[in-house]
Amino acid sequence: MTTILKSKDILHVKDLKLEQISLILETAARYEKVMALGGRLTNMAGKVLATLFFEPSTQTRLTFETAMLLMGGHVVSVTDAKTSNSVVKGERLYDTGKMIDGYANLAVIRHMAEGSAKELADGASVPVINGGDGAGQHPTQALMDLYTIQKERGRLNNLTVALAGDLKNGRTVHSLSWLLGKYGPRFYFVSPQELKMPADITNSLQNDGIEVIETTNLEEAAVKSDVLYMTRVQKERFTDENEYERLKGVYAVNNEFLGKAKHGITIMHPLPRLDEIAREVDEYEGAAYFRQAANGIPIRMAIIALVTGNE
Ligand code: NCD
Question: What was the pLDDT predicted at 5?
Fold first, then answer.
Protein backbone atom coordinates (compact mmCIF):
# COMPACT_ATOMS: atom_id res chain seq x y z
CA MET A 1 0.00 0.00 0.00
CA THR A 2 2.67 2.50 0.97
CA THR A 3 4.61 2.00 -2.24
CA ILE A 4 1.71 2.69 -4.60
CA LEU A 5 3.29 5.93 -5.75
CA LYS A 6 6.89 4.73 -5.97
CA SER A 7 8.59 5.58 -9.28
CA LYS A 8 5.49 7.40 -10.46
CA ASP A 9 5.61 10.62 -12.46
CA ILE A 10 3.11 13.26 -11.31
CA LEU A 11 2.22 14.94 -14.61
CA HIS A 12 -1.57 15.26 -14.59
CA VAL A 13 -4.07 14.90 -11.76
CA LYS A 14 -6.00 12.45 -13.92
CA ASP A 15 -3.18 9.94 -13.37
CA LEU A 16 -3.93 9.83 -9.63
CA LYS A 17 -6.33 7.32 -8.12
CA LEU A 18 -8.36 8.14 -5.04
CA GLU A 19 -6.25 5.88 -2.80
CA GLN A 20 -3.07 7.60 -4.02
CA ILE A 21 -4.54 11.02 -3.31
CA SER A 22 -5.54 9.88 0.18
CA LEU A 23 -2.03 8.52 0.77
CA ILE A 24 -0.49 11.87 -0.19
CA LEU A 25 -2.86 13.78 2.10
CA GLU A 26 -2.28 11.36 5.01
CA THR A 27 1.50 11.41 4.58
CA ALA A 28 1.51 15.22 4.48
CA ALA A 29 -0.53 15.34 7.70
CA ARG A 30 1.93 12.93 9.34
CA TYR A 31 4.95 15.06 8.35
CA GLU A 32 3.23 18.23 9.44
CA LYS A 33 2.62 16.71 12.86
CA VAL A 34 6.23 15.53 13.23
CA MET A 35 7.49 19.02 12.40
CA ALA A 36 4.98 20.73 14.68
CA LEU A 37 6.29 18.57 17.54
CA GLY A 38 9.84 19.72 16.73
CA GLY A 39 10.88 16.41 15.16
CA ARG A 40 13.51 16.09 12.41
CA LEU A 41 13.19 14.01 9.28
CA THR A 42 16.12 12.41 7.49
CA ASN A 43 14.32 10.14 5.06
CA MET A 44 15.80 11.86 1.96
CA ALA A 45 19.40 11.92 3.27
CA GLY A 46 21.90 11.40 0.48
CA LYS A 47 19.25 11.96 -2.21
CA VAL A 48 19.15 14.78 -4.79
CA LEU A 49 16.20 16.73 -6.17
CA ALA A 50 16.69 18.62 -9.46
CA THR A 51 14.44 21.65 -9.98
CA LEU A 52 14.18 22.98 -13.54
CA PHE A 53 12.20 26.20 -13.71
CA PHE A 54 11.87 27.67 -17.20
CA GLU A 55 9.09 30.02 -16.07
CA PRO A 56 9.05 32.33 -13.02
CA SER A 57 8.05 30.89 -9.67
CA THR A 58 8.48 31.85 -6.06
CA GLN A 59 6.26 29.56 -4.12
CA THR A 60 6.46 26.33 -6.07
CA ARG A 61 10.24 26.25 -6.37
CA LEU A 62 10.87 27.40 -2.80
CA THR A 63 8.44 24.92 -1.30
CA PHE A 64 9.84 21.98 -3.27
CA GLU A 65 13.39 22.90 -2.34
CA THR A 66 12.50 23.54 1.32
CA ALA A 67 10.56 20.28 1.45
CA MET A 68 13.61 18.37 0.20
CA LEU A 69 15.97 20.12 2.64
CA LEU A 70 13.63 19.45 5.58
CA MET A 71 13.91 15.71 4.87
CA GLY A 72 17.72 15.85 4.82
CA GLY A 73 18.07 15.83 1.02
CA HIS A 74 20.00 18.01 -1.43
CA VAL A 75 18.84 20.27 -4.26
CA VAL A 76 20.38 21.20 -7.60
CA SER A 77 18.56 23.70 -9.76
CA VAL A 78 18.31 25.55 -13.00
CA THR A 79 16.96 28.91 -11.91
CA ASP A 80 17.77 31.26 -14.74
CA ALA A 81 16.61 29.11 -17.59
CA LYS A 82 17.20 31.77 -20.22
CA THR A 83 20.96 31.73 -19.77
CA SER A 84 22.14 28.88 -17.65
CA ASN A 85 21.25 25.68 -19.36
CA SER A 86 21.57 23.84 -22.59
CA VAL A 87 17.92 24.07 -23.55
CA VAL A 88 18.81 27.51 -24.91
CA LYS A 89 21.33 25.70 -27.09
CA GLY A 90 18.58 23.53 -28.49
CA GLU A 91 18.74 20.59 -26.14
CA ARG A 92 15.55 18.54 -26.11
CA LEU A 93 13.80 18.00 -22.80
CA TYR A 94 13.89 14.28 -23.56
CA ASP A 95 17.70 14.42 -23.51
CA THR A 96 17.67 16.61 -20.39
CA GLY A 97 15.66 13.82 -18.77
CA LYS A 98 18.25 11.21 -19.78
CA MET A 99 20.98 13.36 -18.25
CA ILE A 100 19.13 14.00 -15.03
CA ASP A 101 19.06 10.26 -14.43
CA GLY A 102 22.79 10.49 -13.87
CA TYR A 103 22.58 13.23 -11.23
CA ALA A 104 19.31 13.20 -9.37
CA ASN A 105 16.75 10.93 -7.73
CA LEU A 106 13.80 13.00 -8.98
CA ALA A 107 13.05 16.23 -10.85
CA VAL A 108 10.48 19.01 -10.79
CA ILE A 109 9.93 21.00 -13.97
CA ARG A 110 8.02 24.20 -14.74
CA HIS A 111 7.84 25.20 -18.38
CA MET A 112 5.78 27.48 -20.64
CA ALA A 113 4.84 24.67 -23.05
CA GLU A 114 1.98 22.31 -22.32
CA GLY A 115 3.25 18.73 -22.39
CA SER A 116 6.81 19.73 -21.42
CA ALA A 117 6.83 17.72 -18.20
CA LYS A 118 5.73 14.67 -20.19
CA GLU A 119 8.64 15.13 -22.60
CA LEU A 120 11.13 15.31 -19.73
CA ALA A 121 9.52 12.25 -18.15
CA ASP A 122 9.75 10.32 -21.43
CA GLY A 123 13.53 10.72 -21.23
CA ALA A 124 14.05 10.32 -17.49
CA SER A 125 13.77 7.07 -15.55
CA VAL A 126 13.63 8.93 -12.24
CA PRO A 127 10.21 10.36 -11.22
CA VAL A 128 9.30 13.68 -12.82
CA ILE A 129 6.86 16.11 -11.20
CA ASN A 130 5.03 18.73 -13.22
CA GLY A 131 5.41 22.08 -11.46
CA GLY A 132 3.19 23.81 -14.04
CA ASP A 133 3.22 23.36 -17.83
CA GLY A 134 1.90 26.44 -19.61
CA ALA A 135 -1.87 26.69 -19.35
CA GLY A 136 -2.00 22.91 -18.83
CA GLN A 137 -1.70 21.35 -15.40
CA HIS A 138 -0.32 22.08 -11.93
CA PRO A 139 -1.04 18.86 -10.05
CA THR A 140 0.94 19.50 -6.85
CA GLN A 141 -0.79 22.86 -6.40
CA ALA A 142 -4.14 21.08 -6.66
CA LEU A 143 -3.02 18.56 -4.04
CA MET A 144 -2.09 21.32 -1.60
CA ASP A 145 -5.39 23.02 -2.40
CA LEU A 146 -7.22 19.82 -1.55
CA TYR A 147 -5.23 19.48 1.67
CA THR A 148 -6.12 23.08 2.52
CA ILE A 149 -9.82 22.56 1.85
CA GLN A 150 -9.81 19.47 4.05
CA LYS A 151 -8.11 21.35 6.89
CA GLU A 152 -10.21 24.49 6.58
CA ARG A 153 -13.60 22.84 6.05
CA GLY A 154 -13.07 19.54 7.88
CA ARG A 155 -14.11 17.50 4.83
CA LEU A 156 -13.82 17.19 1.06
CA ASN A 157 -17.19 15.69 0.20
CA ASN A 158 -20.32 17.59 -0.82
CA LEU A 159 -18.90 21.11 -0.81
CA THR A 160 -20.01 23.99 -3.00
CA VAL A 161 -16.88 25.47 -4.51
CA ALA A 162 -16.57 28.56 -6.72
CA LEU A 163 -13.54 28.80 -9.00
CA ALA A 164 -13.21 32.37 -10.23
CA GLY A 165 -11.10 34.48 -12.57
CA ASP A 166 -9.06 33.25 -15.51
CA LEU A 167 -10.43 29.72 -15.84
CA LYS A 168 -9.25 29.45 -19.43
CA ASN A 169 -5.53 29.96 -18.82
CA GLY A 170 -5.21 29.13 -15.14
CA ARG A 171 -3.58 25.73 -14.76
CA THR A 172 -4.33 25.58 -11.02
CA VAL A 173 -8.09 25.57 -11.61
CA HIS A 174 -7.74 23.00 -14.39
CA SER A 175 -6.04 20.60 -11.99
CA LEU A 176 -8.19 21.42 -8.98
CA SER A 177 -11.50 20.92 -10.77
CA TRP A 178 -10.47 17.42 -11.93
CA LEU A 179 -9.24 16.49 -8.48
CA LEU A 180 -12.11 17.93 -6.46
CA GLY A 181 -14.52 16.36 -8.94
CA LYS A 182 -13.77 13.00 -7.28
CA TYR A 183 -15.44 14.22 -4.06
CA GLY A 184 -18.91 15.08 -5.34
CA PRO A 185 -18.79 18.87 -5.27
CA ARG A 186 -21.16 21.44 -6.70
CA PHE A 187 -19.15 23.88 -8.80
CA TYR A 188 -19.61 27.50 -9.76
CA PHE A 189 -17.25 28.43 -12.59
CA VAL A 190 -17.09 32.23 -12.51
CA SER A 191 -15.37 34.06 -15.35
CA PRO A 192 -15.91 36.53 -18.16
CA GLN A 193 -17.04 34.83 -21.39
CA GLU A 194 -13.53 35.20 -22.82
CA LEU A 195 -11.92 33.31 -19.94
CA LYS A 196 -14.27 30.36 -19.50
CA MET A 197 -13.14 26.94 -18.28
CA PRO A 198 -12.12 24.76 -21.26
CA ALA A 199 -15.16 22.85 -22.47
CA ASP A 200 -13.46 19.45 -22.23
CA ILE A 201 -13.08 19.89 -18.46
CA THR A 202 -16.61 21.20 -17.89
CA ASN A 203 -18.16 18.50 -20.10
CA SER A 204 -16.22 15.73 -18.47
CA LEU A 205 -17.30 16.83 -14.98
CA GLN A 206 -20.92 17.11 -16.11
CA ASN A 207 -20.75 13.67 -17.72
CA ASP A 208 -19.66 12.36 -14.34
CA GLY A 209 -22.87 13.78 -12.88
CA ILE A 210 -21.31 16.83 -11.21
CA GLU A 211 -23.37 20.00 -11.14
CA VAL A 212 -21.47 22.86 -12.77
CA ILE A 213 -23.00 26.32 -12.88
CA GLU A 214 -21.17 28.68 -15.24
CA THR A 215 -21.69 32.36 -14.54
CA THR A 216 -20.07 35.76 -14.96
CA ASN A 217 -21.50 36.93 -11.62
CA LEU A 218 -19.15 36.45 -8.67
CA GLU A 219 -21.66 37.56 -6.07
CA GLU A 220 -24.24 35.00 -7.21
CA ALA A 221 -21.64 32.27 -6.63
CA ALA A 222 -20.24 33.64 -3.36
CA VAL A 223 -23.69 33.68 -1.73
CA LYS A 224 -23.93 29.91 -2.20
CA SER A 225 -20.33 28.71 -1.85
CA ASP A 226 -18.38 27.15 1.02
CA VAL A 227 -15.10 27.91 -0.72
CA LEU A 228 -14.21 30.71 -3.13
CA TYR A 229 -10.99 30.05 -5.08
CA MET A 230 -9.83 33.27 -6.74
CA THR A 231 -7.22 33.38 -9.51
CA ARG A 232 -5.13 35.96 -11.31
CA VAL A 233 -5.79 36.85 -14.94
CA GLN A 234 -2.76 35.17 -16.56
CA LYS A 235 -1.07 38.04 -18.37
CA GLU A 236 1.68 35.86 -19.84
CA ARG A 237 -0.84 33.76 -21.81
CA PHE A 238 -2.41 36.73 -23.65
CA THR A 239 -1.38 37.62 -27.18
CA ASP A 240 -3.44 40.83 -27.15
CA GLU A 241 -2.33 43.24 -24.43
CA ASN A 242 -5.49 45.36 -24.80
CA GLU A 243 -7.61 42.34 -24.04
CA TYR A 244 -5.56 41.67 -20.90
CA GLU A 245 -5.96 45.30 -19.79
CA ARG A 246 -9.72 45.07 -20.33
CA LEU A 247 -10.13 41.84 -18.35
CA LYS A 248 -7.52 42.03 -15.60
CA GLY A 249 -9.60 43.80 -12.95
CA VAL A 250 -12.79 41.91 -13.63
CA TYR A 251 -13.28 40.55 -10.09
CA ALA A 252 -12.24 41.98 -6.74
CA VAL A 253 -12.96 40.60 -3.31
CA ASN A 254 -12.95 43.18 -0.51
CA ASN A 255 -14.63 43.50 2.89
CA GLU A 256 -17.79 44.94 1.39
CA PHE A 257 -18.04 41.95 -0.93
CA LEU A 258 -17.43 39.53 1.97
CA GLY A 259 -20.43 41.05 3.72
CA LYS A 260 -22.59 39.73 0.88
CA ALA A 261 -20.96 36.29 0.62
CA LYS A 262 -22.02 33.11 2.45
CA HIS A 263 -21.24 33.38 6.16
CA GLY A 264 -17.90 31.70 6.98
CA ILE A 265 -16.86 31.31 3.35
CA THR A 266 -13.25 30.14 2.89
CA ILE A 267 -11.23 32.36 0.52
CA MET A 268 -8.35 30.72 -1.34
CA HIS A 269 -5.85 31.86 -3.98
CA PRO A 270 -2.82 30.02 -5.42
CA LEU A 271 -0.82 33.30 -5.33
CA PRO A 272 0.60 35.57 -6.60
CA ARG A 273 -2.44 37.81 -6.21
CA LEU A 274 -2.85 41.07 -8.07
CA ASP A 275 -6.05 43.02 -7.38
CA GLU A 276 -8.42 40.04 -7.06
CA ILE A 277 -8.28 40.14 -3.26
CA ALA A 278 -7.85 43.41 -1.37
CA ARG A 279 -5.31 43.41 1.45
CA GLU A 280 -8.00 44.20 4.02
CA VAL A 281 -9.38 40.69 3.42
CA ASP A 282 -6.20 39.23 4.95
CA GLU A 283 -7.65 39.99 8.41
CA TYR A 284 -10.75 37.89 7.75
CA GLU A 285 -10.48 34.52 9.54
CA GLY A 286 -11.68 32.62 6.50
CA ALA A 287 -8.87 34.09 4.37
CA ALA A 288 -6.89 30.88 3.89
CA TYR A 289 -4.47 31.79 1.10
CA PHE A 290 -1.34 32.19 3.20
CA ARG A 291 -2.14 29.02 5.15
CA GLN A 292 -2.69 27.40 1.74
CA ALA A 293 0.80 28.52 0.66
CA ALA A 294 2.34 27.08 3.84
CA ASN A 295 0.58 23.77 3.18
CA GLY A 296 2.82 23.44 0.13
CA ILE A 297 5.63 22.26 2.41
CA PRO A 298 4.06 19.10 3.92
CA ILE A 299 2.31 18.22 0.65
CA ARG A 300 5.51 18.48 -1.38
CA MET A 301 7.45 16.59 1.29
CA ALA A 302 4.90 13.80 0.98
CA ILE A 303 5.07 13.78 -2.83
CA ILE A 304 8.89 13.74 -2.93
CA ALA A 305 9.10 10.96 -0.35
CA LEU A 306 6.36 8.80 -1.87
CA VAL A 307 7.48 8.90 -5.51
CA THR A 308 11.04 8.00 -4.51
CA GLY A 309 9.90 5.30 -2.09
CA ASN A 310 11.47 7.01 0.93
CA GLU A 311 8.39 7.77 3.03
C1 NCD B 1 0.23 29.61 -9.94
C2 NCD B 1 0.87 29.09 -11.23
O3 NCD B 1 2.09 29.22 -11.38
O4 NCD B 1 0.14 28.54 -12.01
N5 NCD B 1 1.17 29.96 -8.97
C6 NCD B 1 1.66 29.00 -8.14
O7 NCD B 1 2.25 28.02 -8.53
N8 NCD B 1 1.38 29.14 -6.84
C9 NCD B 1 -0.79 30.65 -10.16
C10 NCD B 1 -0.45 31.87 -10.95
O11 NCD B 1 0.68 32.05 -11.40
O12 NCD B 1 -1.35 32.69 -11.11
Answer: 93
- By most ligand atoms within 8 Å of CB, the mutation choice from 55, 138, 295 for ligand 1 is 138
Are residue 209 and residue 277 in the same domain, yes or no? yes
Q: Give the structural domain span for 96.
A: 13-137+296-308
Measured by CA distance, the residue closest to atom 8 of ligand 1 is: 270
61 and 144 assigned to the same domain: no
pLDDT digits (tens, 9 = 90+) for 190-232: 999 999 999 999 999 999 999 999 999 999 999 999 999 999 9
Q: Amino acid identity, residue 142?
A: A
Q: How far apart are CA 182 and CA 208, in angstroms?
A: 9
Ligand 1 centroid from CA 272, angstroms: 7
Give the domain CATH number at 73. 3.40.50.1370
- Contact predicate 201/181, CB 8 Å: no
Dist. CA 157 → ligand 1 center (Å): 25
Distance 270 CA to ligand 1 centre (A): 6
The stretches in the chain having pLDDT less than 70 are 1-3, 80-91
Q: Is 172 in the pocket of ligand 1 (CB under 6 A)?
A: yes
Q: Are 129 and 160 within one domain?
A: no
Is 32 a member of any domain?
Answer: yes
C-alpha 162/C-alpha 265 separation (Å) is 10
* Three-state SS annotation for 279-308: HHHHHCCCECHHHHHHCHHHHHHHHHHHHH
Question: Is the pTM for the entire model greater than 0.85?
Answer: yes
Task: Return the pLDDT at 58.
Answer: 86
